[in-house]
Amino acid sequence: MPTLLQTAPMSESDSSRPSLVFAYYVTGHGFGHATRVVEVVRHLISSGHRVHVVSAAPEFVFTTEIHSPNLFIRHVLLDSGSVQSDALTVDRRASLEKYCEIAVEPRDSILATEVEWLKSIKANLVVSDVVPIACRAAANAGIRSVCLTNFSWDFIYAEYVMAAGHHHQSIVWQIAEDYSHCEFLIRLPGHCPMPAFHDVIDIPLVVRPLHKSREEVRRELGVPNNVKLLIFNFGGQPTGWKLKEEYLPAGWICLVCGASAKQELPPNFIGLPKDVYTPDVIAASDCMLGKIGYGTVSEALACKLPFIFVRRDYFNEEPFLRKMLEYYQGGVEMIRRDLLAGCWAPYLERAVTLKPCYDGGIDGGEVAAKILQDTAMGKKRSKLNLSGARRLQDAIILGFQLQRAPGRDLSVPEWYQVTGDEAGTPLVDQTQKSPKFVEGFEILHGDHHGLIDTVSFLDSLATLAKIGGHHQEREHLAAAALFNWEEDIVVARAPGRLDVMGGIADYSGSLVLLMPTREACHAAVQRNHPSKQKLWKHAEARHHSRDTPILEIVSFGSELSNRGPTFDMDLSDFMEEDGKPISYDKAYHYFSKDPSQKWAAYVAGTILVLMREMNVRFEDSISILVSSTVPEGKGVSSSASVEVATMSAIAAAHGLEISPRDVALLCQKVENYVVGAPCGVMDQMASACGEANKLLAMICQPAEILGLVEIPSHIRFWGIDSGIRHSVGGSDYGSVRIGAFIGKTMIRSFASSETNSGETEEESSELIEYDASLDYLCNLSPHRFQAQYASKLPQSITGEEFMETYGDHGDSVTTIDRKGTYHIMAPTKHPIYENFRVQAFKALLTATPSEEQVIGLGELMYQCHSSYSACGLGSDGTDRLVRLVQKMEKLKHSKTENGTLYGAKITGGGSGGTVCVIGRSSLRSSEQILEIQRKYKEATGFMPYVFEGSSPGAGKNKESIYGIARGSTSSSHRAFTSSTTVNSASSSPLAGNSFNGLRSLLKGQKAPTFRKMSTLAASSSESKEGLKLLVTGGPQARKWVGAWLFGSAAWVFSMVVLGGVTRLTRSGLSMTDWKFTGEFPPLSDEAWAKEFEKYKQSPEYKRVNKGMNLEDFKFIYWMEYAHRMWGRGLGIMFALPFSYFLRKGYITLRLGVQLSGLFALGAGQGFIGWWMVKSGLEEPPSEYSQPRVSPYRLAAHLTSAFAIYCGLFWTALSVVMPEPPAESLAWVRGAAKVKKLALPVSFIVGITAISGAFVAGNDAGRAFNTFPKMGDTWIPDGIFEMKPLIRNFFENTATVQLDHRLLATTTLLAIGTMWWFTRKLDIHPAVKALIGSTVGMTAVQVTLGVSTLLSYVPVSLGSAHQAGALTLLTLMLLLNHTLRRPSPSLLKSLPQVAKSNFS
């Protein structure tokens, strides 16, 4: 694990140590690296060491601060960093080409020169910030090396490869291998993932010290203290922007860093000299405006200065620094066009209200110097055992850095983890949701169909309506201010797609088979009159007229993709002066101006396409919220799902009737022409027209849907993410597509030549003529291609050569680069053969199920994968996943059983992304998928996401568009009838009928339910003889007492769950004393310190949590404190109503005795709990044992809680349902038969639950994490090794877990047996329903138990499993209570057979 070193001042004795020689290499990228190097070098030289700095930065950067004969400057450029075309834009292709020129091509001579130089200066240590080749040179010279940085170039350049072409991959691998020779990394805050380094030390910020006070600087500048000072800091890169006086509000002056002598500045702008000491100026300012870099962020944080930042394009260091800046409440993002247009005022107003709160160390220079000195003197550090260069090639996964899910990568610092699931919203149990109501909203039309993600998204809208300005995430703040929450909102959902077969052959007219994914995108749209549109402050400052329609968009999950979270524009920008929509080319350039906002083209582009293709005019303002759980860059059509969801919602909101097929075709135009990505139409078709658990079969000529292919029940498809970012906008996909169209053009030309020559035979002439007019490559059969044209096609051709010979290639969405070279044979051959493979695959799917069938399907997928690789669209990550599937498949040959996984292939546009896997639908297959996931992580350091399951497309049903209104039953708040016709201004009759139907349902106009029958039984039996009621005072009193008892039981249920969470988070031993009456928690720093000291004396701290900080202690303390106070709250909640009902005379003597006993047992539960905790505060018997509570005491505590719950729940049932539901003597006799089975089954359920307490007490769930076997055997060794024998059943981990497994299996069989023998009995429907529910809950509980075991007992699953045990016990209690024998008076009144209305 990384070690965090805080301030470690260099002692006076350091000067007495021998003088050391350091070679310090500085990257050529910007001044930020050089300035932080100055601070480290200054401390090294002050300790008497000599430092040779190798840098291309100007000498004054170093010599201004350091005046010493021990500083030597060697002006050499060994890496070029990122080449910037302007202050905010990185040229990715030029960056890689420049690096090749500087560091790759002359690599051998550089290494020879550097090795010789290092030996000549007799360097003791090489330090790199962060020059890759310096580490390799040091290794060749036999000198230790250390890197000091917050990012590394392998990480930065990996993203550039997507734009510059994968032939540059070797650069990234070489850089990673160079870094691997470094001994360890000194890592700065705000760091990126850097898997190339073996070991890590974390240090505080490296910040230059201040030389002058704020007052001195302002005095020298002539700026009074009452004037606001803005520092304009875009690094050493000249901006060339023309600054204007009106950019600044009154009372502000701007200091411009890096201003040229020729630049004319307005009177309220002051140019600073190039060698100005920036830290002093920053400290004297009130705000900074600039681009994010390590230097600007670190010094802004150190000075607690608000920082208005503008995103840089394509520099992946930025998101991590930006997140750190915002975490410490010091950042405000400015949109680039507001910077250039001078709309600064709203940002400055916001910035001065910030209160940056960074309180960490700023002495990283001193700390780093001490580490470097110790290392140079020979101090060794233990290394983590990471593998070599091959692992590094896999670990540096191209583009993975910005596509990870929260919590997936241990290298990402804690503050970078996104709070909550920004790619979606937390999952909820949809069974608890009404199909027509979401908290705070009413669904006026449509139905969420039980889709969990839709329910969650609707819930998230309700949450946004409440949060106001109290949410931490900027995108949530923007979304909260996006909608008028009293008006209607239209929501649409569109899934991603898993490319099962077909892939990149779509643009060549192939048959494709696509499965919609479970993951989907939701778009919420609202239209308002421009005068009523809510505007963000910066948008309001820009849009002076409130009569012009505005488009505002918020995208959730922006931080995962380094894009701006918001976008706004005048819709008039989409119009020419003559009133016609602008061209697609103009739109493409409009969105390309600011790459951090280019994502908006996918959303806003739908509006332009509707304007151009359907002549729609938008007179209202539009607000759009987009939230997608379809991961980006994984090859599962994240872009298509965004386009289809947005298009569907906008069309619905404006009353446009568009078929799902036409929606897909319109969305393809968005992607091809507005976004500029050359994709086919299959992605949009699957998202719009797909159906859950079926494959959409479509011939892409251009979009002919053949129908839906049922996935056989014995077959299942998975998608496994390689972590390598896929992009259809990447050069490889585009060049392969161009190659295919060039091949088609050549084939047509060859055929035309033969036709014109007149030499073809008559029987062949018709075929040749057909080929001469070939419209799609896939219409050419494989055998004809091989026989007639394969030998004529070249392997490759240059763009210039092709265009001179053939002219245009016939593809309107790609452009040939004359200087480029294109492969022809493989891209042409692939779609021709792929079309044949897909046809065979489709036919096999519908064949008779057999082993040969799935083997054949798998082989077709393997062939497809190989063909992708031949086109140059493979990747190391996807190849590794396919090989892992092949290894799993090979396992079946050594067994008699049939196989489980049969084939795999790369999907979509290739070059990374997701692998589709086919296998049998079985538990074993799922286990093998998890095993592949685990092995891939071991090899690459990346835990792949698994796509599993399916969901309907956006246009599959007529209720896939949801109209919702907040808290309104007015007929004016309506959404409408079909999925494509929704108009917020009209009033559809069907919408009204749906609404009225919902209201009548709520009034209870339905058949009697179980609850109704129970109430009827109770009310009808009150006056009958032989029935002793527990509550007097009539039905209303019974209702009140029953509600109180049910509430108390629910409280106990929550106590049990909270106790489980407390145990699983190891919080139970955090409070080392106990008082019956309770006590106040620590409320001051002093009280917390005192409580923490008490905990430090406990065995748990000494053996488990040593080194825990106060914040971590507070978490476990609050967990235990909440558990205890929740229990005391239950006592009060029980006692007060109990006293009231006693005083009112509602409680009978019998009930009073029962409740008094339960109250006493509850009070004793507190003592039992402390008795249990006390056992964990004692020293363990062995020095190797971890402290934990006694399993006997834990079992007693849990059993006591279960007993209290059962008593309360049974008593509550007896109060509200004094008679069981019995409408005939036949049903009574049937209930008696069921009861004979239910009682022993209940006993087994109870014993199983208690055995679970011993599993928890012995931490047995964290052993033998396999199923169904325990490790490699069915019965583990040593299950009876303890003496006496009985101890094994309560203290032996293996025995305790085996017992629980056997009891759980027995429970499942017993409840299944009860269902089997009672399924034909004549019993009350309520009893049948309860038995069925019990069977279902048992299956859920067993699944939870197995999942908890296989997942090493995560808190979520562990607590859910404990709650499941209590739920199952609840159902058994309810069943037994329902099976009671009725009173004699009720028996006398019952008929022999139930009446028909109850049958």
TrEMBL record:
Q: Which Gene3D superfamilies match?
A: 3.30.230.10, GHMP kinase, C-terminal domain, Glycogen Phosphorylase B
Keywords, A to Z, come to: ATP-binding, Heme biosynthesis, Membrane, Nucleotide-binding, Transmembrane, Transmembrane helix
Q: Does the keyword 4Fe-4S apply?
A: no
The subcellular localization recorded is: Membrane
**Which residue intervals define the domain GHMP kinase N-terminal in the entry?**
602-690
Give the metabolic or biological pathway.
Porphyrin-containing compound metabolism
One annotated GO molecular function is: heme A synthase activity
Could you mention a single GO BP entry for this protein? Answer: heme A biosynthetic process
GHMP kinase C-terminal domain residues are: 856-936
Its topology with respect to the membrane?
Answer: Multi-pass membrane protein
Query: What sections of the protein cross the membrane?
Result: 1040-1061, 1151-1172, 1192-1216, 1237-1257, 1300-1317, 1329-1353, 1359-1379
Q: Which GO terms describe its cellular component?
A: membrane
In its keyword annotation, does this UniProt entry include Secreted? no
Q: Which organism is it from?
A: Brassica campestris (Field mustard)
Protein name per Swiss-Prot or TrEMBL: L-arabinokinase
